[in-house]
């Protein structure tokens, strides 16, 4: 059995995440010994988006201090580690290389195995960090800044893509829509906060691609609808909130409809939601509600484990290391990488 703590490193985008986790299949969350996160939000805010070169440099600065902090939190020394997991893709190439090179070098120096983890598998497994973890088979809705996927999980490691986005990912739609209404980066959470002040029924946008069969998504048209509504409005605070609310409702409705369809198509009775947009309150409430009405169970990670974090990478890596997988000394990252 693989019972020593695994160090997890996440550096695929604009968060440096580090965690320590001891693999225990029955209750993975109970094996989490420490997790720390440094967000680069303030670094990129002036540019209205993530600047890859700045992201890489900041990961370089922050990563080892965070590793030290996580070890201190867990009361561990490096010599007690059993392996190192790092995000190998998809993501920004320079940012990925920081985590990969550092993680691989640490593993080499400690004489322990290293494993490169798929960022989206990390997201997908994050609900296992919570109490009462979901057991396969289940359907997973993975909605982040880069992806909108519906995945059939027959077993851990056996994934079938049921639906994908044809254009913008759900989080990307949140971010771009926020930006065009003048909200600061990162737009998604800001737009969601604003939507809470919005009045229902003032605006209404289409639920893209729900009027025909299929499990794919398309969110870029929604953004255009918002742009038109915003440009022809008074552009005051209340209108912005009203539009934000209608936009959020359209995305949430669309996601709920597709999840319901995916559950029907697969016969699964469990739905896992993960990725940054999984932190959205309206989405969580709507899916929990649909589940209660229609008899499927919903599993969400806590909001901090919906967005990027080291714990999910430690978990996915520990699981793979426990199954005997590991990586050689040549460091490789995959900016584009299918799940
Ligand atoms: O998973 P994540 O942290 O990074 C990626 O792998 O992309 O997801 C980030 C995305 C961003 O697009 C962000 O705007 C969105 O998740 N997001 C939200 C919320 N919190 C984060 N979108 C809607 N409502 C939220 N509360
Ligand atoms: Zn992510």
From TrEMBL:
<keyword id="KW-0808">Transferase</keyword>
<keyword id="KW-0963">Cytoplasm</keyword>
<comment type="similarity">
    <text>Belongs to the KAE1 / TsaD family.</text>
</comment>
<dbReference type="InterPro" id="IPR000905">
    <property type="entry name" value="Gcp-like_dom"/>
</dbReference>
<feature type="binding site">
    <location>
        <begin position="142"/>
        <end position="146"/>
    </location>
    <ligand>
        <name>substrate</name>
    </ligand>
</feature>
<feature type="binding site">
    <location>
        <position position="175"/>
    </location>
    <ligand>
        <name>substrate</name>
    </ligand>
</feature>
<dbReference type="GO" id="GO:0005506">
    <property type="term" value="F:iron ion binding"/>
</dbReference>
<feature type="binding site">
    <location>
        <position position="280"/>
    </location>
    <ligand>
        <name>substrate</name>
    </ligand>
</feature>
<feature type="binding site">
    <location>
        <position position="119"/>
    </location>
    <ligand>
        <name>Fe cation</name>
    </ligand>
</feature>
<dbReference type="InterPro" id="IPR017861">
    <property type="entry name" value="KAE1/TsaD"/>
</dbReference>
<dbReference type="InterPro" id="IPR017860">
    <property type="entry name" value="Peptidase_M22_CS"/>
</dbReference>
<protein>
    <recommendedName>
        <fullName>tRNA N6-adenosine threonylcarbamoyltransferase</fullName>
        <ecNumber>2.3.1.234</ecNumber>
    </recommendedName>
</protein>
<dbReference type="InterPro" id="IPR043129">
    <property type="entry name" value="ATPase_NBD"/>
</dbReference>
<feature type="binding site">
    <location>
        <position position="123"/>
    </location>
    <ligand>
        <name>Fe cation</name>
    </ligand>
</feature>
<dbReference type="Pfam" id="PF00814">
    <property type="entry name" value="TsaD"/>
</dbReference>
<dbReference type="GO" id="GO:0005737">
    <property type="term" value="C:cytoplasm"/>
</dbReference>
<dbReference type="GO" id="GO:0002949">
    <property type="term" value="P:tRNA threonylcarbamoyladenosine modification"/>
</dbReference>
<keyword id="KW-0479">Metal-binding</keyword>
<keyword id="KW-0819">tRNA processing</keyword>
<comment type="function">
    <text>Required for the formation of a threonylcarbamoyl group on adenosine at position 37 (t(6)A37) in tRNAs that read codons beginning with adenine. Is involved in the transfer of the threonylcarbamoyl moiety of threonylcarbamoyl-AMP (TC-AMP) to the N6 group of A37, together with TsaE and TsaB. TsaD likely plays a direct catalytic role in this reaction.</text>
</comment>
<dbReference type="GO" id="GO:0061711">
    <property type="term" value="F:tRNA N(6)-L-threonylcarbamoyladenine synthase activity"/>
</dbReference>
<feature type="domain" description="Gcp-like">
    <location>
        <begin position="32"/>
        <end position="314"/>
    </location>
</feature>
<dbReference type="InterPro" id="IPR022450">
    <property type="entry name" value="TsaD"/>
</dbReference>
<feature type="binding site">
    <location>
        <position position="308"/>
    </location>
    <ligand>
        <name>Fe cation</name>
    </ligand>
</feature>
<feature type="binding site">
    <location>
        <position position="188"/>
    </location>
    <ligand>
        <name>substrate</name>
    </ligand>
</feature>
<keyword id="KW-0408">Iron</keyword>
<keyword id="KW-0012">Acyltransferase</keyword>
């Amino acid at each position: 059995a693989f019972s020593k703590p695994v160090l997890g490193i996440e550096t695929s985008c604009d968060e440096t995440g580090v965690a320590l986790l001891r693999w225990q299949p029955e209750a993975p969350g109970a094996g989490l010994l420490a997790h720390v996160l440094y967000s680069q939000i303030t670094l990129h805010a002036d540019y209205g988006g993530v600047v890859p070169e700045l992201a890489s440099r900041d990961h370089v600065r922050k990563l080892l201090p965070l590793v030290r902090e996580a070890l201190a939190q867990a009361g561990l020394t490096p010599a007690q580690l059993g392996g190192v997991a790092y995000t190998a893709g998809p993501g920004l190439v320079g940012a990925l290389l920081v985590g990969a090179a550092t993680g691989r070098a640490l593993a080499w120096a400690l004489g322990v195995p290293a494993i490169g983890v798929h960022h989206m598998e990390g997201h997908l497994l994050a609900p296992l960090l919570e109490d009462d973890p979901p057991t396969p088979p289940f359907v997973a809705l993975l909605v982040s800044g880069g992806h909108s996927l519906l995945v059939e999980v027959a077993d851990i490691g056996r994934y079938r893509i049921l639906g994908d986005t044809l254009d913008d990912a759900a989080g990307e739609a949140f971010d771009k829509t926020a930006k065009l209404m003048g909200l600061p980066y990162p737009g998604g959470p800001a737009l969601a906060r604003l939507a809470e002040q919005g009045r229902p029924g003032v605006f209404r946008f289409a639920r893209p691609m729900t009027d025909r069969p299929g499990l794919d998504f398309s969110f870029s048209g929604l953004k255009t609808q918002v742009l038109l509504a915003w440009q022809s409005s008074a552009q005051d605070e209340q209108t912005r909130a009203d539009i934000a609310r209608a936009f959020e409702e359209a995305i949430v409705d669309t996601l709920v409809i597709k999840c319901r369809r995916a559950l029907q198509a697969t016969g699964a009775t469990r739905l896992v939601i993960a990725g940054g947009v999984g932190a959205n309150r309206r989405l969580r409430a709507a899916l929990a509600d649909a589940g209660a009405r229609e008899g499927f169970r919903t599993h969400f990670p806590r909001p901090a484990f919906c967005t990027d974090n080291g714990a999910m990478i430690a978990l996915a890596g520990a699981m793979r290391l426990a199954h005997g997988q590991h990586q050689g000394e040549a460091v490789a990252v995959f900016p584009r990488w299918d799940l």
